[in-house]
Amino acid sequence: MHAAWHIYEIRHQIFSSLEPQDFARLARICSTLFTVCTDKLWARIASLKPFLHALPQDFRERPLTKQDVQRLNLYADKIQELDLEKESGRRAIRLKSKGLEQKSLKKWDELWAEIAALRPLSDFLPNVRRVCLYNVTADVIVPLISITGAKLSHLSINIYNPETNGAVCQFLESLADTSRLESVSLHDGLIPPKLIQQAPLKRLRLNHVFLLRSDQRRIPLCLDLLEKSTLERLSFSLPVEWCWPLIDTPKGKYLPRLQKLWLDLKHFEPERCSRCLYTKDLYIKEPGEQTRTHSGRYAPALFLEALDRPELKLLKIELPGDATPKMVRDVVRAARDSCQLNTFEDLTLGRSGWYSQCQECRDTVLPESKPEHVREVLSTLLPMPHLRKLRLSVPLNFVDSLDVAFNCEMANGLPMLETLKLDFRESVPLHHLAAFCSMLPNVTRVSLRKADYTALEEMPREEWACPRVQRLKIMDWDPDEDGEGASREALYRNLQTYFPNTELAKRGPE
């Protein structure tokens, strides 16, 4: 083989233009190319079938020997990323076998138990750095149980079948070495405390996840999570069972290095309306007492109050669909008092979730917020001098009226704002939106759900023009339903005056 093949830069230049089948052909040329090309072919595996193809063809029909699994071990050592989506071990093992009944063939769990007896489970996948499992069955996780995870740095598991939770927890519990694990994403399951406590986590995403104690008790994540001083990114769904176990009050402040926080409160109480769940003075704390609901749980604002004033760059808070103005206000104030707002670059305040019938009072409770409540909450957060993206999906339109004083206050408090997304249920009058955006000196991208085509000005005001806005997106926009005749002309006249450099304005009436 030519000496040039030993130079990494040359190999990288050649390999960058090759397809997987090309690597398979090159691997047959010589032993050096075999090593290099199979490293590429096996670096990322997206199915279980390659494991089976590395075994003898009759692996289901006879007992395996150590020589039979040598090829499997060779290729397993090369895997750096394991990405399995909707995989099933039982489907993967359904290979054709002539002359034998299905009853006499080796089953999936029997196969891996036999392989484990021929070589230590800890020797399997020693170099894997990334494991992603999406909606897989429990048998897919069987080969992963007891791997060491010594080089594992990223772990993502999204499972929607409760029957798989036991296998997931067993896999996480069996990880002996998590010294390099920095990123964990887990949806709807159980997680052993030692994984949170021992791994040097920097990025953590937990959605409907509970701790599984040694006595098999399932409890919500609380202090174990907050004590991770290494965390830089946290996405966390606060469950209905949230509480502070084994302690009376939060001791000290937590998460000083946090840079990005996604806090999901939508499922804090999914079956009861706020009127039945919360007492009137829920967030008013007596001296020496913590804030609790009448059912003994702690208010979500307490989670934010425990933060050690981190310099957040991103904050996203999703509130329940029936959250009252007081709940929204208290959560936002807790974020303001516990975080440094002068570092914010991306802020999202959303409210979504159910509007179904309450299980106690049987009423369908809609939000009680008013536009002035939303304006009050936004004023509470000002100033945010470095904020570049603002997303609001609260139910009510805070630009329902031409409040010049509020517009000036927002413009002065958001001098660097570039992207504005308003996901309101109500329609937004274009001239109200233009009056607001015209005062924002750097905004270039504006998005809203629906424009109010009935509130159009016959003579649009040029002082509200927003020439800096390059993109205006109306999510419910339908060119065939934007008005007819004079109203259609007025719509485009408003767009061309207020947002002259956007695609919608340039399109013009047909």
Automatic annotation (TrEMBL):
InterPro entries: F-box_dom. Pfam families: F-box-like (PF12937). Residues 9-45 form the F-box domain. This is F-box domain-containing protein. It comes from Viridothelium virens (Speckled blister lichen). The lineage of its organism: Eukaryota, Fungi, Dikarya, Ascomycota, Pezizomycotina.
